[in-house]
TrEMBL record:
This is Uncharacterized protein. Gene3D superfamilies: 1.20.140.150. The chain crosses the membrane at residues 12-34, 161-182, 213-235, 286-311. Keywords: Membrane, Transmembrane, Transmembrane helix.
Amino acid sequence: MDRKTRARGFIMLSIILSVLALVFFIIALFLPYWKFIRLRHNLQIVDYTSIDLLVHLESEQFLDSMYRSNLHYFGIYKRCIEHSASATSSKPSTAPADTIKSGRCGHNYVPKFDDSDFKACHSVKLYHYCIFHSLSSSGSLPASDSSEEISPKCECRSPDYITISMVLLYLSIACAFCCILINSLRLINSFRLPIAEKNKSKQRTRKIIDDRLLKILSAICSLFTLVFLIILLILQKFSEKYEAFKFFESLRQHYSRVLISEFSKNFATVIDRFDNVLDVKLGASFVFAVFAVLFTSIAFLCSSGVHIGAYDRFPPEQKNMANELRIKDGESTFSTAV
């Protein structure tokens, strides 16, 4: 196997790996399995004797509505909640594990509002509403769906890290697609034959795309894909508890701004205890993204580590004849000089 054939094999392998990575990008984009969140137990996370009663009641109301007996799984576009009927009791059960599960999927949205509208918008009902109700194109709640308890000033938006993740995924898909096209062009370019022309001078000056240029472009696309994906994975890892903490964190920040330090400290305590009982696991979409990084890295090494030279413009017979003529000319020149 000559050098050019081996180079073609490596580029073909690079294309296959890039296609697999592209498929994984698309799967990770649409599957709602980036992470799973649930409570380790359904007991009270904070005793009402250690915090203010109002803080305790609001915390328990949120946990009862959103997290107790529920398994949440998150994607870029979707958020799903699976309810287990057998887990409603906090006591251990000796009955067979015939759990009745029901699931429902909606948007991965959280409420967004100005601090001046905090009392009107911050509620457990709105958090549930943002997930499971359709929104207008502007992100505001439709008037037809709004009840008297939900102010039209309230909006539902994707978390900032989700918006950034979405952009990074689309950029990764675009770069991976460009990398596949460039490496395919390199492969086609290596098989390209010179066109037979009557004017031999034109045949000598005929050029094909330089493989060095294509290799550089392919390497740049692969590096950008890797950078975007690594940033995405880091962002997802460090934001894995964002949605779970959003409700309590909004309350803590609000009471801190209005200088009610006791409530702010109470909610900081709730967040700390809530963190201790949360069970967060990364899902299949995250694993697909990790494999996409691995495949893109190998594809980058396979593609950038080989070079396919330009196709020879002259057949071997003409090249041998030209070499013989050069040797004879050199010998005659040498004999004349002597």
